[in-house]
Write a structure and sequence with these properties.
Elements (H helix, E strand, L loop, with lengths): L5 E2 L3 E2 L6 H7 L9 E2 L1 E3 L3 H11 L6 E6 L4 H4 L11 H14 L3 E6 L9 H9 L6 E4 L15 H8 L4 E4 L5 H10 L5 E3 L2 H5 L3 H7 L7 H23 L2 H15 L7 H9 L3 H12 L1
Parallel strand pairs: 1-3, 2-4, 4-5, 5-6, 6-7, 7-8, 8-9
The structure holds flavin mononucleotide (FMN).
Length: about 290
């Protein structure tokens, strides 16, 4: 069971379009899923550059990132940095739609520093024919912290007539249902950290009451997946240290599902090689 659609991590302009980015979009790496490449741009020149690099792989839509809160991104007026000046944001979107060669969707936040900015931003976004508007219900200065402003979806509905997707802090079927009951017209939901914490989440959401796996079965599947991912990273990075770094990063989310294993999780964080790591993981999942 998979999600209806996936988005790549953002692909920036003016960078060597090397293996790292190519691997994200190569069709052979993304068989059987609907994938939209996401790009990080500041104007239509950069859009053109990335259209030329990405569309030949068979894509007809690009997703524009105006949500990334990272200091290095916003300082270049990219990502959520584009939300700081609403007139500039409007001109940016006009420039893109005047020059685009493919469908565009957008992933955005509610504003730069204050929720009250959202109304104006929603009004601007609503004037452009995006195929999809994904809304991470926080402002830039909230980064990934605090409670998302779910009520922003009401304003979104007023101003944005194209399909809307809610994003922020969905960790369970109950989280999703809570939002869906409040806003039953919502078209879609995007899940980020929730899937890293609970890899069965999509299945649980899609199957609802029919999802009947017990913890033992779930752990077995997660173990097989984590083993597979470890070996894939090892080939891709050609480095055990780098592979361990990425696996530990993933465990920082997955581990939240195993609060009773704090000691074992600490051991995972300290492992220095593959055999130590495998023993530590088996102590939780096997
Ligand atoms: C480590 C990390 C990397 C992320 N990279 C991207 C990215 O490349 N593009 C993007 O649109 N969002 C990115 N996000 C944001 C998530 O897509 C999502 O909007 C955010 O985590 C809130 O949703 P969640 O509560 O479901 O995780 C990233 C988040 C994290 C924590």
């Amino acid at each position: 069971v998979s999600a209806d659609r996936y988005y790549t991590p953002f692909i920036p302009a003016h960078k060597k379009f090397g293996n790292k980015y190519k691997a994200e979009i190569l069709p052979e790496n993304n068989k059987g899923i609907d994938l939209i490449p996401q790009i990080m741009i500041g104007d239509s020149m950069e859009l053109k550059e990335l259209e030329n690099l990405i569309l030949p792989y068979g894509y007809d839509e690009l997703n524009i990132n105006t949500g990334c809160p990272s200091g290095t991104v916003v300082s270049k007026c990219r990502g959520a940095g584009l939300l700081r000046d609403i007139d500039h944001f409007d001109a940016f979107l006009e420039d893109l739609f005047d020059n685009k060669s493919c469908k565009l969707s957008i992933k955005t936040r509610l504003g730069w520093s204050d929720y009250s900015e959202w109304k104006k931003i929603a009004e601007v976004i609503g004037r452009y024919p995006f195929t999809e508007v994904i809304i991470h219900a926080r402002v830039r200065e909230e980064f990934y912290n605090g409670i998302p402003h779910i009520e922003a979806m009401q304003i979104a509905d007023e101003y944005i007539k194209t399909p809307k997707c809610y994003n922020g802090d969905i960790y369970s079927l109950e989280d999703l249902e809570k939002i869906n009951i409040q806003y039953p017209w919502l078209d879609e939901f995007m899940i980020g950290r929730g899937i890293l914490t609970n890899p069965s989440l999509i299945e649980q959401i899609k199957c609802g009451d029919k999802f009947e796996q017990n913890d033992l079965e779930i752990n077995k599947r997660i173990l097989a997946f984590m083993d597979d991912l470890f070996e894939t990273y090892l080939v891709q990075f050609g480095s055990e240290i780098n592979t361990l770094y990425h696996m530990k990063e993933l465990w920082s989310h997955l581990g939240k599902n195993y609060p009773e294993h704090e000691k074992e999780l600490k051991t995972i964080r300290k492992t220095k090689n593959k055999s130590e790591y495998k023993v530590a993981v088996a102590n939780i999942l096997a």
